[in-house]
Amino acid sequence: MTTKTSMPTLPSRVIIREVGPRDGLQNEDAILSTDDKIRLIYALSQTGLSHIEVGSFVRPQNVPQMADTSEVFARLQRREGIIYSAIVPNVKGALRAIEADVDSVMMFLSASESHNQSNVNMSVAQSLSLMPEVARIVREAGKWFEVVLSVAFGCPFEGDVPITYVLDLSERLLNLGAGQLTFGDTTGMAYPTLVQRTVLAFRERFPNQSLRLHLHSARGAGLANILAALQVGVTEFDSSIGGIGGCPFAPGAPGNLCTEDLTHMLHEMGIETGLDLHALMDSARMLEHMLGHVVPGQTIKAGICKHLEKTA
Amino acid sequence: MTTKTSMPTLPSRVIIREVGPRDGLQNEDAILSTDDKIRLIYALSQTGLSHIEVGSFVRPQNVPQMADTSEVFARLQRREGIIYSAIVPNVKGALRAIEADVDSVMMFLSASESHNQSNVNMSVAQSLSLMPEVARIVREAGKWFEVVLSVAFGCPFEGDVPITYVLDLSERLLNLGAGQLTFGDTTGMAYPTLVQRTVLAFRERFPNQSLRLHLHSARGAGLANILAALQVGVTEFDSSIGGIGGCPFAPGAPGNLCTEDLTHMLHEMGIETGLDLHALMDSARMLEHMLGHVVPGQTIKAGICKHLEKTA
Hints:
Chain A is an alpha/beta fold. The first copy, chain A, has helices at 20-24, 34-45, 69-75, 91-99, 113-120, 124-140, 163-175, 192-205, 222-231, 259-268, 277-291, 299-302, and strands spanning 15-18, 51-56, 83-88, 104-110, 144-150, 181-184, 211-214, 236-239.
């Protein structure tokens, strides 16, 4: 059998950050009990994941699904080697995160004014002005400080977001102390060639800075965008167990990339994730049971492919 | 803005063959009326499509959804420049297809014994033995003769299907008179590197033979497989309006690639299809109305992306 391919060399290993407990659940109508969240995160901790986004420290009246994040952190059974993270929009959120002993604090802001305004009720300049203080609080507590840049591949209000703007903003974020950047395709506007152009431009400007991608699948192209990103050497991705959540602007459309679907494709291509696909499927089924509805992920319906069964 | 990308050159134009009226509808529980089918095919004929798979000539008791294919062909308003095709398993089907004045007759067989047996109740050798007669009947009537090779990327019963076997079978099919080959990923077992390996091996052995791919999306990787195929120069694909049908082995999982989702991604990457995405969305909505349930396609839920709105 020939193994010739014109495909650029793919990475041999990828790190998946699980965002279901936060980005997934915050888009669900039903609010899971704290007990259920802890059970879900415990199950996810047994799958080989090294990073789980647990919750957020925002105003409870804005995101009631995340109101118990402090309690979840207090009660979850942490497993060594796993980073349990949370996102925060401001100084108050950072202080609460540190109090909850969060391993990695991720501040989020948007690459467009209107999305930042709608998301955190501040201008981009206001978000940036808070960053040094947030970074200082997190660093002094001995924790990781990261930044998530939303709508980096297009804004549902403003349309295209120029790559140069995203890079200029990235430079400011890195100068303000962001240890790691994540570019979010918050409403699923990325497409393969745009992903590659963005990553290559980022790499050219910041040759030594790693970049995580938080891709969505609003129009079915999520895994195509992953393939495109792999081809330009991206090795860190966000995804959500069961594919829940992530697309408030497209009701009924899958939003977040599904962790099992992503893992399935990576394993088929021989790319290591360190994840146990069967255990992920168990977690997705547990989640389905907790939510009381079918999740958008497809592998949970189609099953693991025969050629992966033994090694999944 | 940089336009640098490491992506192999993509084709500038792609031809999509619409299979919803056959491969889609035959997997629906509800049987559409002949009138509805004709309305749907008429709507699809206004979208810029150049090839529509209308139905099949198989035993009505096996696929009752396709029992009226002769009547559909008799009554449909054909638009010049569009190929209206049908699939057949044997000589009897071919004779009925010619009587119905089908533009292109596609004989189907499987790349695995057990799938061929389960699908057409014959061995692969028996299917092959019928082919010269089917080809003769079709050619003498002045029509196109094509072959669809199912489970070319893996069989749900037998697992992996070796590429060498697929190529050996292809050689026999071409020698027996197949004018065009389509490789079907009938149950969604393809993945990007397998697609590329298969296409490149095919190209090496049959340098002047075009190849159409019928890809599925059972585990979310459909458009990733398309991207992989585009990167090795494939320009002919099957897809199904609304993403209906195509995966009897995975209930609830999307099977066929969705025509609107595929077109959306291609247009985003600047690849021409000749299709009017808005008109496709209208057809998908019409279909949803006829079927009385939501279709699996995602663009119909998420909407056309802002950056495509004007030129979709």
